[in-house]
Amino acid sequence: MSHPELSPEYIDRIIQMAWEDRTPFEAIEMQFGLVEQDVILLMRRQLRRSSFERWRKRVSGRRTKHLALRDEAVTRFRCSRQRAISSNKIAKR
Length: 93
Fold this sequence. Notes:
Strands 1-2 form a two-stranded antiparallel ribbon. It has 4 helices and 2 strands. It has helices at 8-19, 25-32, 36-46, 49-59; strands at 85-86, 89-90. With 93 residues, it is mainly alpha-helical. The protein starts with 7 loop residues before the first helix and ends with a strand. Helix content is 45%, strand content 4%. Helix 1 (8-19) crosses helix 3.
């Protein structure tokens, strides 16, 4: 993976999205162009080893991280109580 165009702000947002339970890898791919394997490599490079291992254990096999495994009733990427996010900025209510 070589994405020199990713700014520190984008990298932070990708890491945040990867940690979120309801955000599937497909949403990261749609927004940033990184497939699951790219996200894994980015997380491996950006996180401490123990944090990376904890994250991998958490997301491995998690149904909500993959649209194909997700229950058809779930039609959103985020919790209904989460504030709307546009252009990586939290919108005020």
